Amino acid sequence: MLQLRVARTRRIALIGLAGALAVSMSACAESKRDDNAAGGDKTGGTMVFGATGNPKMFDPIFNDEGETFRITRQIYDTLLQNKPGTADVVGSLAEKWEPSNDGKTWTFSLKKGVKFSDDTAFDAKAVCFNFDRWFNMKGAAAQSQMIYYGDVFEGFAKNEGDATGAPVYKSCEAKDDSTAVINLNKAKGAFPAAFTLPSFSISSPTALQKYNADTVTQSGDSFSYSDYANKFPTGTGPFKFEAWDQAKGEVSIVKSTGGTDTAKLDKLIFKVIPDENARKQALKSGDIDGYDYPSPADYALLRNDGAQVLIRPSFNILYLGINQANNPALKDVRVRQALAYGINREQFVKSKLAEGSEVATEFVPKAIAGYNDQVPQFPYDPEKAKQLLAAAGASNLTLNFYYPTEVTRPYMPNPADTFTAISEDLKKIGIKVEAIAKPWNGGYKDDVQKAGKQDVHLLGWTGDYNDAGNFVGTFFGRSKAEFGFDNPALFSAIAAADAAAVGDAHTKAYEEVNKQIMDYMPAVPIAYPTPALVVGAKIKGVVASPLTDERFNTVTKG
Amino acid sequence: MNTLLNKKKEPIDKLAATAGGGRSLAAEAIRRMARSPVAIIGAVITALFVLLAIFAPLLAPKDPFDRALQDQVQLGRGIIPGSMPGYPLGVDDFGRDFLSRLLVGAQQTLLVGVVATLIGVSVGMIIGVLAGAFGGWVDTVLMRFVDVLLSVPSLLLAISVAALFAKPNQWTVIIAVSIVSVPIFARLLRGAMLAQRDADHVLAATSLGVKRHTVVLRHMLPNSLGPVIVQATLTLATSIIEAAALSFLGLGDPDPSRAEWGLMLGKAARQFLDIRPELAYYPAIAIIIVALGFTLLGESMREALDPKNRR
Amino acid sequence: MLRFIVRRLLQAIPTLLILSILVFAWLRALPGGPAGAMLGDKATPEKIANLNHILGLDQPIYLQYIKFLGRVLTGDFGNSLISTQPVVQEVLDFLPATIELSFAALFIAVGLGIPLGYLAARFRGGIIDNLTIVVTLVGVAVPVFFLGYLLQNNLAEPLGLPSQGRLTTGLDATDITGFAILDGILTQEWDAVWDAIRHLILPAITLATIPLAVITRITRASVLDVMNEDFIRTAQSKGLAEQTIRGRHVLRNALLPVATTIGLQTGLLLGGAVLTERVFTFRGLGFLLAEGIERKDYPRLQALILLGALVYVLVNMLVDVSYGLIDPRVRVR
Questions:
Q1: Which chains touch B (3 or more CB pairs under 8 A)?
Q2: Of A273, A400, B64, C115, which has fewest CB within 10 angstroms of its CB?
Q3: What's the pLDDT score for residue C241?
Q4: Strands of A46-51's sheet, edge to edge?
Q5: What strands, in cross-sheet order, belong to the sheet with A105-110?
Q6: What proportion of chain C, given as a percentage, has pLDDT over 70?
Q7: Is there a contact between A297 and B168 if contact means CB atoms under 8 Å apart?
């Protein structure tokens, strides 16, 4: 109690200062936006950050969603990471990395003198322990929850359940304390970028064993996780885990020494406030120092109050999917192009999406290596759309249009609004639209991706790491029920690009693929929506990341 | 013995007991209401609302679905144009004329309220008439079921039911809201049947050899109309408010092109309260006034029918 | 009394059993299900099928139900998808907040409603009476969530009141029972008590409107009824002082129906709490439910509905027992 009182007195003294600061900040909030990145000199203090949802638990390998990763990113490190504010791959726990010519062997030179927050040493053995742990994970339940591991490494030492993939991972050797070599069974375009994935954070081997991290048990229709995941997550990050108070909806982490970086703050509290209005009010009143995903409509107001709205470079794509198998008229490329010409994407982006969002010209966002600014363009032109439809003999086209409900995604903040805007545009070029709304996790994905019941639909993607294959490979790498077309030339071009050597060749190959896709128009890219985060006037040193990979070690308050 | 449940049943049973009064009583009730200012206010609000709902499409100055000013809406900058020439109340987040949407919203809102109430009345009537007319084990089983429904807090029941639907739309809202009123109407009609079982006109008809179902349909049901109308009027008010609450929780119709006050309020209260509060205020005021109108009318009808107030 | 409690509990069993079957069957019939929710954004249909198999969701439904019932009987209601914690634990963690909020709301509703209703009846037809009638009518008609947002956006800042949560984040308050105010009193951390009260004000006002309106109206009606009854007239004719009559006879007799109304309102508060707690991020049961609905956490919803039914049965019983204590006639029956 005593300690708190001291802190509070200090806070009161700061109020006057904060007020003065707020005034000066609001005067030039817009122009000075990037200044935030610089960070302040002041150290210490507590920052409270408003999150939109509950974290699941803190063993990154069993996680796949942003609310948890926001926290684990502060307490763990990965071998490689994204350079702040970009999607460029830079070193983290590994200072250098080197693939073999065939891309199957990756040698990592590790940072020296790093310790986990339980004071055990980080070394090559710890890296191999983690990779081997994932590879050898037992139990169908545990394997089913290792979502990113399954995507990237495809299989386990012993696949349980009905997972059938052949493992990409082969072995890991600790050459010496600071050299780890990871051997793969096959090369993949996802590497090295996939080593930045927060799921592949390196945990303390001692803590993993001590708190039975591998225990995942079924409980009803859900799973329970170990004490490691709930109470003792242990990494090398600038903060260490302190407590997770379920009743209050707060996770607190405190400054840690011995990790890769040192935090300037003493303490960081993540507070769950699902209600948007309540988050905004809490920031106004000073209950919290910042929050994620402010409503675009509030940016101006927030800035007026002296807060800083930090816009993330887009790493999202929203598209209008086209299923050629369900409606023969859509097999004609002119009809698909007519859809592209007929949707007023500029107006949609301007009136419905957040500041910083842009019209999509292809299926990867600009931050990705392989983005091509020379693809064919389809500006809004309803007349041309009508002509194309007429030429294709599809003037009386009727499309069933699927859109999801009960969901918001970074690439689709409001599906129903998006549907309304696009369907009205389609009506203007003479297309009859039959709306079919389904709950996201209650039929939508099944109908659209498995059964292919739709003619057109709304969907999108948030990138996980800087690899164009993570976007276009996922969409168009093979014949899928979602799009209902078979284009062997395109499939093999994507496969070749994925296999191309790391670096320029890889980028070039994907630039070509992106042009090829836009010529074929298997779907209509709509927008690169972009989310933001907002922090109060006193907070310095937050760098908005396209991958929502914001590290708070550089943050200061006051 | 179940104290809370009994407390809930009390007003219903009291209302049911007024059944069977016949035409003269109804006329007397109407006469009494005509003298009560509360009843008149309620009736006027209700009548205006119903007229508005019926003629809304004719009254709306603009097409409520036309995104005429979409170009001027910039959500990313917090801009939704307010009042301007041709658009007295401004536009909504889709650039649609807000006044027209409010007017047409009256129709949609009334529709939700009326359909939900009608379903509640119909299902409640089937249960209540079966129970009341046949008695015995039919009565026991049905009323046990009704008691269970009645004992759950109404909004919680509506939320639970609505949450159980995979795919929320206009109809899931209506069904969720109507389920709340089913037990009320069931109990009401059962009570009304029982109140009349020994009434003169029923005894007369029965002794004349009229078949049981004819007695029920021709005599007992029409005579229960008074209490049903009273309860339906009150139910309409709560239905509209409950539908708005469901919309707020994300259990409402997800189609943003529909103009319904509850939906408009649910969305605007969450998203636009700071940048264009009118988008929430107007539908909220509309809901409050209409709910008030129905409540005033219903309550004064109830009082007028109450034999205790006859002097 | 004990026999009565046991009998009531036994009577509740079939109801709860039927409810469990209904809820279970309904949730199973829904498309989607927990697998899709767990695997998130990038789930493929194959992965969902795999997970369904692991969870045993591809077994015959009656088998699933028997397993489910077996777990429930041992007190295991399953885990939430959102937090991965046992729902029973969540309920225990979140219950104090709802009780605290409901009490605060009832406190306001009763504390204002009874005097207001009494005054309205006493000065029937006067300004207070008419004003009371209008306010009570409007109070019932205002959508609760809208009122919550109105207070949050327009009152919180000017009054310096918190707009969300139960305690200021980072406040170093000792947690013993989960009841913020009670804990503060027990540990004599008075600033924590004050902090908790400040956080309660706006949500409690929001939640109190409907019960306040109802209690006021019932009190008014009940006082009017009693004033017209014979024994009051007798007392008056006996020349008893007006004060004595009002205090001893009118109020006491008028309060009995009011007491049951309060009980009834406690149940209704739970409905309003869903909206209020959601608006103010007041982390109670209503918040838990709203979050479960929004994020389609079916295991949590299933557990909440069943636990809710169980608690409701218990509360009903409790009210009956206490009613019996107030009014001996009931016990005799």
A1: A, C
A2: C115
A3: 66
A4: A239-245, A250-255, A267-272, A46-51, A290-292, A532-535, A308-311
A5: A94-99, A105-110, A179-184, A169-176
A6: 86
A7: no
For all residues of chain C together, what is the average pLDDT? Answer: 81
Q: How far apart are the C-alpha atoms of B290 and B113, rounded to whole Å?
A: 11
For B117-140, write each residue's pLDDT tens digit.
999 999 999 998 888 777 788 888
Give me the residues of chain A with pLDDT under 70, please. 1-40, 162-163, 406, 441-442
Q: Which pLDDT belongs to residue B10?
A: 78
Asked whether A60 and A78 are in contact (CB, 8 A), the reply is no
| pTM for the model | 0.83
Distance, CA of A445 to CA of C42 (rounded, Å) = 10
Closest Cβ opposite residue B166 in set C31, C145, C146 = C31
Quick one: average pLDDT of C19-41?
Answer: 75
Q: Which chain A positions have a beta carbon within 8 Å of C280's beta carbon? A: 275, 278
**Angstrom distance (rounded) from CA A119 to CA A110:** 17
Listed as own residue / partner, the contacts of C227-231 with beta carbons closer than 8 Å and 24 or more positions apart are C227/C121, C229/C253
Domain contains B14: no
Per-residue pLDDT, B66: 81
Residue C182: pLDDT over 80: yes
pLDDT tens digits, C187-238: 888 888 999 999 999 999 999 998 899 889 888 888 888 877 766 667 666 6
Contact list, B183 vs chain C (CB under 8 Å): none
- Residue closest to A232 by CA, chosen among A224, A242, A247: A242
- The answer to the question of residue B16 being in a domain is no
Place of tokens 């109670």: C284
In the numeric block, which tokens belong to residue B294? 């129905």
Query: Any CB–CB contact under 8 A between A52 and chain B?
Result: no
Specify the pairing of strand A217-219 against strand A308-311.
Answer: unpaired
Asked whether residue B18 is domain-assigned, the answer is no
pLDDT in tens, B266-275: 888 888 888 8
Q: Is A74 helix (H, G, I), strand (E, B) or coil?
A: helix
Whose tokens are 């003269």? That residue is B24
Domain containing B152 equals: 32-309
Which residue shows structure tokens 């041992």? C74
Which of B71, B76, B254 shows the shortest C-beta gap to A353? Answer: B76
At how many degrees (to 10) do helices B278-305 and C127-141 cross?
Answer: 120
- For residue C246, pLDDT over 80 is answered with no
Residue A409: CB atoms within 10 A of its CB come to 20
Q: What's the pLDDT at A40?
A: 64
The CA distance from C76 to the nearest CA of chain A, in Å, is: 8
Q: What is the CATH number of the domain that holds B210?
A: 1.10.3720.10
Residues whose CB falls within 8 Å of the CB of residue B156, separated by 6 or more in sequence, listed in order? C270, C271, C274, C308
d(CA B208, CA B166) in angstroms, rounded, equals: 53
Is there a contact between C166 and A248 if contact means CB atoms under 8 Å apart? yes
Contacts of C309 in chain B (CB under 8 A): 152
Contact C296 A441 (CB under 8 A): yes
Nearest C-alpha in B relative to A530 = B76
pLDDT given at position B1 = 42
Residue-range domains of chain C with CATH: 2-73 (no CATH), 88-332 (1.10.3720.10)
Who wins on pLDDT, A377 or C246?
Answer: A377
Chain centre to alpha carbon of residue A467: 13
Residue C195 at interface with chain A, using a CB cutoff of 8 Å: no
What pLDDT was estimated at residue A4? 37
In a domain, B22, yes or no: no
Q: Is A427 on the interface with B (CB under 8 A)?
A: no
- Between A526 and C168, the higher pLDDT residue: A526
Q: Mean of the pLDDT values across residues B192-216?
A: 77
pLDDT of residue C243: 62
What is the SS3 assignment for B84?
A: strand
